Amino acid sequence: MKRVALAATAMMILVSIASTAQAQPPGGRGGMGVDAEAFKAPPLPVDDQEKKILAAMEEQRNGPRYRNVSTADGRLMRMLTETTGAKCVVEIGTSTGESAVWFALGLRKTGGHLYTHEIDPGRAKIAAENFKKAGVDELITIVLGDAHETVKRYKEPIDILFLDADKEGYIDYLDKLVPLIRPGGLIIAHNMSPRMADKKYVDAITKNPKLETSFLLMDGAGVGVTMKKR
Ligand SMILES: C[S@@+](CC[C@H](N)C(=O)[O-])C[C@H]1O[C@@H](n2cnc3c(N)ncnc32)[C@H](O)[C@@H]1O
Fold it and tell me: Domain containing 186 — which CATH number?
C-alpha cells in the first residue's frame, strides 16, 4: 500500500515537471530564449530620408533583381560603412544596385562615395534608375566595363572594398587593390560559404599575417570581413 502511494506521488511530480517544462518560453528557463522571428525584425528608418531610401529598396525588391545581397548582408554593409566612417567604398558587382543602396545608407552619414563596377549594361541601367528613385544617385558612380580592367583607375586610398562579382576573380581584385586599402580598412567578400567560396581567395585572406579575417552570416551566403592591419 505504501509502495503504491509512493509511486503515485512520483508520478504526480513527473507530470508537474513536464507541464512546467512545456510552459517555458522557447530556449529555456527563467524567461530567456527568443523566438527565431524576433531576429528578423525589419530595418526601422531614423528620419524621412532613410524612410524614402528603405521604401525605394522595398519597391526595388519587387522589380527586376539579380543575385542581390540579403537584408542581413545589406545591414552589415551599412553598419561597417558607418562605423568605419568610410569615405571611399569600391564595389565589384553592382547588379541592380541593392547592396549599393545599403552602402549609400551609411555613406550619406559619413560624407563618402561609392564607386560600383558592373559589366552588364542592362543591369547597370536598372541600378541607375533605382539609385535615382532612392535619392542616392549623387552618392554613387557606376563604372561600366570589365572590373579587372576598370579597377586600374584607382590611385587614392580605399576604405572598403566589396567583392561580389565573378568568384574566381576575387583573387585578382584583391591583388590589384589591397595595396590601396588604407591601414585599418576592410575588404568584404560575399558568397564565402564553404559551398561557394574560392579556396585560393580564402587562403589569401587567412594566411597573410598583414590581414585579419572573420567569417560572418555563414548560415546565409557567407561574408568574409578582412581588415588590413595597421
Ligand atoms: C552577385 S551580382 C552583384 C549583386 C549586388 N552586389 C547586390 O547585392 O545588389 C554579381 C554582378 O557582377 C557582375 N560581374 C561579373 N563579372 C564582372 C566583371 N568582370 N566586371 C564587372 N562586373 C562583373 C555581374 O554582371 C553581376 O551583375
Answer: 3.40.50.150
Q: Which residue minimizes the CA distance to atom 27 of ligand 1?
A: 95
- Which domain does 24 fall in, by range? 2-40
How many structural domains compose the chain?
A: 2
What distance in Å separates the CA atoms of residue 67 and residue 12, rounded to the nearest whole number?
57
Alpha helices in the chain (DSSP H): 2-23, 48-62, 71-84, 98-110, 121-134, 147-150, 170-177, 199-206
- Asked if residue 13 and residue 80 are part of one domain, the reply reads no
Residues 108 and 215 in one domain: yes
Distance 219 CA to ligand 1 centre (A): 22
Residues 6 and 67 in one domain: no
Same domain for 35 and 63, yes or no, is no
Residues 128, 132, 133, 134: what is their CA dihedral angle, to the nearest 10 degrees? 100
Average pLDDT for consecutive 10-residue bins of the chain (230 residues)? 52 46 51 88 94 95 90 97 98 97 98 98 97 98 98 97 98 98 98 96 98 96 98
Which 3 state secondary structure label does DSSP give 46? coil
| Span 57-95, pLDDT tens digits | 999 988 888 999 999 999 999 999 999 999 999 999 999
From ligand 1's centre to the CA of 96, what distance in Å?
Answer: 9
Q: Are residues 62 and 105 in the same domain?
A: yes
73 lines ligand 1 (CB under 6 A): no
At 124-140, the pLDDT tens digits run 999 999 999 999 999 99
